[in-house]
């Protein structure tokens, strides 16, 4: 049987019984099942199923009885559907303080008995989820490659993806998927032909590329990450960060990592489509907005633009070029080269009298008063990447100009950032920053002093839950949460440099923090549970690249010129 339960208490238990006498909780009990709130994750709400396993006699009258107990002074409530249940008795509530005992309640009649189909939670009704889990705004994705739909936490309980697909197997045994051309999902019988067709297409797409990983667990995580990045990729090439309103935009930075992950796994067309979108949305001055709406029609708000995109996009273009089919890549690069040229020229022109770029918001999306490593290091990677692409196209004046700027910037980073251990800024106002990893492959050739700085930075950013915060500034808004992106930076940096023991340990932590559907969340809370949105495309991309490097296939790094 099942009932809707809403509990403000985190501890206690709920017992469901089938009785012959509604007031007799001893000799008339036919079957009983107790579920603890702790086993459910604590306080929360949603439909809860009780496997009571009772042998009943047709034609006899029985009573469904639910009782909650807790030592907390907090309410636990439960009820049925509010719809009619033909042939059922009136529902009764026992509340001695309020009613003096048992009280008939004809407004909540229908608890589900032997729930099937749409009566099972996860189809039309939400399953019980702890309040804490509701902070995970999304748990998974459904996609038909033209539309995307989020799987909400209350509809992910007990569900799982059909292997290597975005089709969801529900607790009822039926499937939920987003049919071709539809914008909302449908629940269908298992092995529905339309769902099977979509599954076959997803598996074919995976088979056209490579799936990195040295174990079944790693390869399963990589397949899920690849499918999730694909679900977040719009037909026009916009790459959504995640599928919840505050994240349903395309950041050039996030998209660059997704493009690189697609490239390294052989999904050339998907990577190229992102770069084409970048070319269309580049501003006239060679920069990009911090983010754009998914239709490409500009920014959603007045958030300041961010200079680091001028490094990330050329770097991603270079990564795509390295992996693209040799017979067609030069011709296809011709449509991207004007974008690279404008971006690199703007990056070079941004260097000041100290050969560093100006202060600009970066992946923290917070301003700094002086140059930050989260901008300087990507620009160095982008300038080296652009110079190499220019040389391959025979544009030697461009190559010389951008290589010269890269050498100036590299020397300035060595002068100002290196003595501080590649901290966030050079003005002494900020501490460690996970962006120190941007000085490592596959972004930049690692300076000799970088390994020690990375280890020191990692230790400074480590949270009690085993993950990392982006920085250790006292006034930064990270709290007790770990950010999977910042943590993944180190897995990638160490795997790329062959420090496999460290890379493996970080990868193990990241993989262990996937949610019940196998998706990577944006953050992990103090208790070690997934939080915020899942999946996050940026973490997906980093995990795929780190797994590739860990198995012995590191991404290339733009050469110094």
Structural overview:
The protein is of the alpha+beta class and 561 residues long. The chain contains 14 helices and 18 strands. The protein has a 4-stranded antiparallel β-sheet, with no helix packed on it. The termini are far apart. The model has no long low-confidence stretch (mean pLDDT 94).
Name the overall outline. Answer: elongated
Structural class: alpha+beta
Rounded mean pLDDT score: 94
Please, what is the oligomeric state?
Answer: single chain
Largest sheet: 4 strands, antiparallel
**Low-confidence residue ranges:** none
N- to C-terminal distance: 70 Å
What percent of the residues sit in helical stretches (DSSP H or I)?
Answer: 25-40%
Strand order of the largest sheet: 6-1-4-9
Radius of gyration, taken over Cα atoms and rounded to an integer in Å: 27 Å
- How many strand elements? 18
- Helical region count? 14
Query: In percent terms, what proportion of residues is strand?
Result: 5-15%
């Amino acid at each position: 049987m099942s009932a809707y339960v809403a509990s403000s208490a985190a501890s206690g238990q709920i017992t469901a019984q089938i009785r012959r006498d509604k007031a007799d909780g001893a000799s008339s009990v036919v079957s009983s099942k107790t579920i603890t709130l702790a086993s459910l994750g604590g306080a929360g709400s949603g439909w809860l199923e009780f496997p009571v396993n009772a042998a009943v006699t047709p034609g006899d009258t029985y009573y469904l009885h639910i009782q909650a107990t807790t030592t907390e002074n907090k309410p636990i409530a439960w009820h049925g559907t509010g719809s009619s249940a033909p042939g059922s008795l009136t529902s009764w509530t026992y509340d001695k303080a309020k009613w003096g005992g048992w009280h008939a309640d004809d407004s909540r009649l229908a608890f589900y008995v032997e729930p099937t189909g749409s009566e099972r939670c996860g189809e039309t009704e939400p399953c019980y989820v702890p309040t804490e889990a509701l902070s995970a705004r999304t748990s998974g994705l459904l996609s038909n490659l033209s539309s995307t739909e989020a799987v909400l936490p209350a509809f992910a309980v007990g569900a799982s993806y059909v292997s290597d697909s975005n089709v969801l197997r529900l607790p009822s045994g039926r499937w939920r998927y987003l049919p071709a051309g539809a914008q909302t999902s449908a629940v269908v019988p298992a092995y529905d032909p339309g769902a099977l067709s979509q599954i076959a297409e997803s598996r074919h797409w995976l088979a056209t590329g490579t799936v990195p990983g040295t174990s079944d667990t790693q390869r399963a995580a990589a397949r899920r990450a690849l499918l999730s990045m694909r679900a977040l990729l719009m037909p026009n090439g916009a790459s959504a960060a995640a599928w919840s309103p505050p994240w349903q935009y395309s950041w050039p930075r996030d998209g660059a990592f997704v493009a690189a992950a697609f490239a390294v796994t052989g999904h050339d067309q998907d990577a190229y489509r992102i770069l084409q979108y970048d070319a269309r949305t580049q501003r006239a001055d060679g920069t990009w907005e911090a983010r754009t709406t998914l239709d490409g029609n500009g920014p959603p708000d007045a958030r300041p633009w961010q200079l680091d995109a001028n490094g990330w996009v050329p770097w991603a273009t270079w990564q795509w070029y390295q992996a693209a089919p040799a017979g067609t890549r030069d011709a296809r690069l011709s449509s991207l080269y004007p974008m690279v040229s404008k971006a690199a020229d703007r990056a070079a022109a941004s260097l000041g009298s100290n050969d560093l770029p100006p202060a600009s918001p970066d992946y923290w999306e917070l301003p700094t008063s002086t140059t930050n490593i989260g901008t300087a290091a990507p620009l160095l990677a982008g300038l080296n990447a652009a110079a190499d692409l220019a040389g391959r196209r025979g544009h030697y004046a461009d190559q010389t100009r951008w290589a010269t700027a890269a050498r100036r910037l590299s020397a300035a980073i060595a002068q100002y950032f290196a003595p501080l251990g590649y901290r966030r800024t050079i003005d002494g106002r900020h501490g460690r920053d996970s962006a120190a990893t941007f000085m490592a492959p596959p972004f930049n050739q690692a300076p000799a002093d970088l390994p020690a700085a990375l280890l020191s930075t990692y230790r400074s950013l480590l949270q009690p839950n085993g993950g990392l915060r982006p920085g250790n500034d006292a006034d930064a808004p990270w709290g007790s949460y770990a950010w999977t992106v910042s943590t993944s930076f180190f897995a990638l940096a160490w795997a790329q440099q062959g420090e496999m023991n460290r890379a493996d340990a970080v990868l193990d932590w990241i993989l262990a923090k996937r949610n019940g559907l196998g998706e990577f969340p944006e953050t992990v809370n103090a208790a070690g549970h997934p939080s915020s949105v899942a999946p996050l495309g940026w973490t997906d991309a980093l995990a795929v690249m780190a797994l590739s490097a860990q198995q012995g296939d590191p991404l290339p790094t733009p050469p110094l010129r």
